[in-house]
Amino acid sequence: MSADNATPIPTDQEFQLFQQLIQQKLGIFLPVQKKALLSNRLWKRLQACDLKGFGEYYRFIQSPQGRGELSTALELITTNETYFFREQKHFDYLQDEILPNYRPGHSFRVWSAASSTGEEPYSIAMVLKDRCNCDWELLCSDVNRTVVEQAKIGIYPDMRVRNIPPEYLRRFCRKGVGPQTGNVRVIAELRQAVQFFTLNLHEDFPDLGKFDLVFLRNVLIYFENDNKTKILERIADKLNPGGILFVGHSESLHGISNRFVPVKPAIYRLVGR
Ligand SMILES: C[S@@+](CC[C@H](N)C(=O)[O-])C[C@H]1O[C@@H](n2cnc3c(N)ncnc32)[C@H](O)[C@@H]1O
Question: Which CATH class is domain 12-77?
């Protein structure tokens, strides 16, 4: 059962087992066209666990001894692509439309709810540090523990910081020396201003308080409509009246949630209750 001699492909039945497990644990729907993706991402783990096929690996990760391996497998399934100042229009809107009109009664609270390796939250933090005249809080979460840990460290190769505006790069990042040559680190002041934690959007949320702005970008695409609706319902409950939601530019809430009205492409406002 292999596409080439190196990477075996799961049978239809094996793929279905993984599909159901991933949907149950993460809410992510993996269509059958993603069979090769599943295979590419998990094959090394089968080898590391010294297991022959996907059926055996599935049984292992479902067993009590395989619990740690289950977390590893689920993390490998997530797609963590991100970059600094991705979808620049959102940062322009934050800077030009939201912050100048914000009337402080409490600190301005932002949540980056699929924060990946930290490029999105640090981009937000740079804008807040530069432009927000009141206290602010920035919470950042992702289901993938490994990317959350990377985000906390805040070290990125030079190539990855190209999109940071030069002034922000000067103010908020430091070039690595010695073994860190070729890397850049976000300054401690900014790292410490951001709270990182793991959170699964597919489960009930803990008490995080209410937010003025939520970034939920490039993650809804991985869910089927009924799960999207449930996530958006929970996000809506976490927003202050008039709160704003940013989604990815290829994502739309049309026909998915009636809790939001569109403001601009990929920008929504909570409908008052
Ligand atoms: C493509 S990245 C998007 C990162 C960033 N928001 C951006 O737009 O650049 C998607 C992120 O969603 C996370 N994710 C996937 N399923 C999730 C879930 N059920 N709960 C929380 N995060 C999830 C992944 O781990 C990944 O880091």
Answer: mainly alpha
